[in-house]
């Protein structure tokens, strides 16, 4: 008889569920993810399914909850490895900001107005005068 699986956590996306599954498996606790592909392919069904479910066997429940409760919270560092006025390729200070004066087309304007889309994000373009590297930063 197969052991019964129970849900110990739900997540809004599969990425966080996979991270927590990896933490459990690193502790020797087999874990399974349910509804991963459904929510990834049809995100509007999130509320109907209750999210991506992380499951373990009944016998591993207490150990798994202990691991999840002692795990660090999800955090993303937003600090770049370089300053905006430095080239990310060669770290030179000889950087020139190039802006394009391209105006959105009438079709783009109408699409944004009719679908209530916000305008395009402000994009800054840079060119390194030392190595020639070009990159874009969104504000």
Q: Overall mean pLDDT score? A: 79
Most strands sheet:
3 strands, antiparallel
- Total helices: the number is 5
Q: What is the CATH C-level name of the largest domain? A: Alpha Beta
Give the number of domains.
2
Give the SSE string.
EHEHHEHEHEE
Protein name: DUF2007 domain-containing protein
Organism: Adhaeribacter swui
InterPro entries: DUF2007, N-reg_PII-like_a/b
Pfam families: DUF2007
Question: Can you summarize this structure?
Answer:
This protein has 139 residues and is an alpha+beta fold. The protein is built from five helices and six strands.
Observed structural traits:
5 helices; 2 domains; 139 residues; three-stranded antiparallel sheet; alpha+beta; Alpha-Beta Plaits; flat
Your description of this structure?
The protein is of the alpha+beta class. The protein has two domains: 5-70, Alpha-Beta Plaits, CATH 3.30.70; 95-138, no CATH class. Helices cover 30% and strands 22% of the residues. It has helices spanning 14-26, 36-41, 46-49, 61-70, 106-114, and strands at 5-11, 32-34, 52-57, 95-98, 123-128, 134-138. A three-stranded antiparallel sheet has the order 1-3-2. The longest helix is centred in the N-terminal third of the chain and has 13 residues, at 14-26. The radius of gyration is 23 Å and the shape is flat. The mean pLDDT is 79. It comes from Adhaeribacter swui.
């Amino acid at each position: 008889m197969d052991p019964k699986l129970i849900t110990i956590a739900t997540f809004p996306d599969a990425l966080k569920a996979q991270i927590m599954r990896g933490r459990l498996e690193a502790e020797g606790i087999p874990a399974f993810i349910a509804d991963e592909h459904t929510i990834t392919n049809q995100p509007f069904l999130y509320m109907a399914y209750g999210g991506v479910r992380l499951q373990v066997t009944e016998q591993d429940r207490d150990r798994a909850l202990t691991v999840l409760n002692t795990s660090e919270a999800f955090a993303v560092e937003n600090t770049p490895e370089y300053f905006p006025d430095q080239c990310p390729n060669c770290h030179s200070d000889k950087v020139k900001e190039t802006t394009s004066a391209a105006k959105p087309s009438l079709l783009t304007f109408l699409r944004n107005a009719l679908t209530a889309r916000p305008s395009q994000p402000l994009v800054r373009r840079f060119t390194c005068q030392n190595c020639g590297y070009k990159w874009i930063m969104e504000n």
